[in-house]
Amino acid sequence: MAKKSKKQQSGGTPATVALTAAGTAYTLHAYEHDPASASYGEEAAEALGVSPDRVFKTLVADVDGELTVAVVPVAGSLDLKALAAAVGGKRAAMADPAAAERTTGYVRGGISPLGQRKRLRTVLDASAESHPTICVSAGRRGLEVELSPKDLAALTTATLAPIARGGASL
Question: Would you say residue 3 has pLDDT above 70?
Fold first, then answer.
């Protein structure tokens, strides 16, 4: 059982600080972010040479007036109805980007499910369980953290549910 991170960047992000404090094993992957990139998640998958089914994007949605985090593969998209159902809600819509940034403490394209300013209810797409490790944002553009889906779910107290649609293996 790993007691400390595999890699720690000096000055880390709130996400890496949270992982280190929890004693969770993880690997950081840095890449040069291209500001002209149309999709942060697809850019990360390509830059890291990782299947888009294993790179998960962190989206913030409003479910019945409550901000909720959805973590889904970049190979697919978020099914808002499925997200609402997963948390016992009736209606979900994408959150206002400014509200998402203010609440999580991260900028769009760098929102991590870990180390958020305000802990939000989190739902992790069930497809994550089919991979030994997945990559999620480490809290800034151009930085991903690879960890086991089980550890991510435990650290975020996430509900696992089928909330993604589309993609190669979804």
Answer: no
Residues, the chain, total? 170
CB-based burial of residue 170 (10 Å sphere; 0-12 exposed, 13-18 middle, 19+ buried)?
middle
Check: CB of residue 93 under 8 Å from CB of residue 83. no
Q: Whose CA is closest to 87, among 62, 111, 104?
A: 62
Instruction: Give CA–CA dist 80/137, Å, rounded.
Output: 21
pLDDT at 79: 98
What is the rounded CA–CA span in Å between residue 158 and residue 152? 8
pLDDT of residue 6: 38
Asked whether 104 and 128 are in contact (CB, 8 A), the reply is: no
15-28: b (≥16 Cβ within 10 Å) or e = bbebbeeeebbbeb
**pTM for this prediction:** 0.89
